[in-house]
Amino acid sequence: xxxxxxLSILCLLLVGWACTEDTETPIxxxxxxxIFVGGDRIRISGRLITNQEVSASDHGFQISETEAFSSxxxxxxxxxxxxxxxxxxxxxxxxxQNYWVxxxxxxxxxxxxxxxxxxxxxxxxxxxxxxxxxxxxKDLVINGRNFPEGTKVFFGDKEAQIVQNLFxxxxxxxxxxxxxxxxxxxxxxxxxxxLEFSEKFEYQSGKYTKVTDFPDPRIYNSxxxxxELGFHVGLGEVRLTGPYRKFQRYNLATGTxxxxxxxxxxxxxxxxxxxxxxxxxxxxxxxxxxYDQSFYKIxxxxxxxxxxxxxxxxxxxxxxxxxxxxxxxxxxxxxQAVRKxxxxxxxxxxxxxxxxxxxxxxxxxxxxxxxxxxxxxGELYQFNPSNSSWTLRTKYPGSLGQSYGVAVVQGAKAYxxxxxxxxxxxxxxLSSFTWKIKNPIPGLPQSITVGQFEYNGAIYIMRVxxxxxxxxxxxxxxxxxxxxx
Length: 485
Fold this sequence. Notes:
Neuraminidase, 1 helix, four-stranded antiparallel sheet, mainly beta, Immunoglobulin-like, single chain, 4% helix, five-stranded antiparallel sheet
């Protein structure tokens, strides 16, 4: 019964088709749907509908900013044979603009149009950019939406070269040369609209300016300290000559050097902090040392002798915290020993050993009453003076050279690097313990840092070429502006 019903319906359809096959239907042009809408372009489909053979001399779309289609733009797709679907694209449109679009066909000299549909182009949007820190000439990628052809990218007021605009959503640019600031906003300009990221891009920075030369020949195994009177460097030995028996003091306000006499014996491998100086030795024969256990309180540029050290001291790491003096390691007996001098009781005490060997070659800094020391593997440990505990915090990411690195705190950042035979400098964020590379220092790579300090928002670093470097090469004092270009 069901088969009979199906055959009956089929016969009726066939009869109906047979009766109407010679009847021509009207020619209809339909405006269909937007296939793609972007910032400055749209892609839309239309259809020529008829059951007869038809030839259009032209077909396409008209687009206008007004519903009345005054001054429309015509997207001509040329001649078309037979009915069917067609697709057109308009580019160079205004962003976030309402447009009316209708399909058309020209048949027998008559233009037939479809109904108009309204389409609004999209608004450009920013999502992210990466990397957030880099150098000139490297690639940077901006992610977002609706970045049409003609989009421009600026780093501050410097326009970047666009390498690729992929799918109007991923722009790759070359980072341009900076202006005067290391931190610049990234702006994306699309037609008359400017978009700006809330977070700024950071250029690799760090400016080094040579300030002065040491007034005497190069010295080695010296000590340095800084106080209210200036930067002092001295003792040690003159290259290939003999002991250096004094200090030179540099006044940053006047830019002048002043000789400072030292009342004690000449020595190398001593220790010094802003308030204390002591220890050291003279090498009287190869690897044979004459030790000096004298100990001094520093008062500006004068030296008050205190009770002698109750131990030998050679190349110890000296750090002051809260008025007290801490001595770590050294090259005599126990290289992991930790000693404390109480400025109140004027007494020495032994603390628990450090977990690794230490000498004056190990970079260190003090932050919020805590001592931070890099071991020979570049690992940074936090030493708590209140309980003598050691905590691993991070690891230096650069080259360790041959020890003698620098570490200086400025605000909530520490600047670490310039190990022997390296020119690298890194910034350590003391909140997150993350690293960021800075610009390298100029000068001879075969150099050693002999002193460093912070003054008026800048870091000062004194470097000396290795003793093996021949020629007239002075000890040089550099000013390091951490975020300058």
